[in-house]
Design brief:
The chain is mainly alpha-helical and about 150 residues long. It has one domain. It is about 55% helix and about 10% strand. Strands 2-1-3 form a 3-stranded antiparallel sheet, covered by helices on one side. Strand 1 and strand 2 form a beta hairpin. The N terminus is likely disordered.
Length: about 150
Amino acid sequence: MLAWIVQLGYKAGAGAAPTPTPAATTPTPAGSSSRTKRRYLVQIDGQDFPVASEAQAIALLQQARALAERQAEAKTKSVERRLRKRAEVPAVALKAPDIVVPFEFSAATAPLIADIERLYQRASMEMELRLLLEKQRQAEDDDEEVLLLS
């Protein structure tokens, strides 16, 4: 115990507390900076996607657009099957995904977001037209059957 006190720098008779030794500082690992990179969040239908730059945000939205094409077609088919059974064709509107980007990227990503929204609007219009044409064809077939039976 006495050796430990001497190592701390206690001097007998001085009555002073031991002098503190400076703490060893750990060096910063090579390759890392003291600043942290800013992470941005792109939100698509409530799901957050972290991106580090505008280019990554654009790449993410391009992937979302490709996925939106496939999903719009799948939604179109399922909704069309349900609506075929109705006597009247209702107005059809497929909901586009809600996309929120950081303000810094809004100018660069606005065309992609607008393109995704147009894609869903176009799919809705095409589906409604297909349903209307099918109802019209069914009406013509029914008219032909009535004429043949008369």
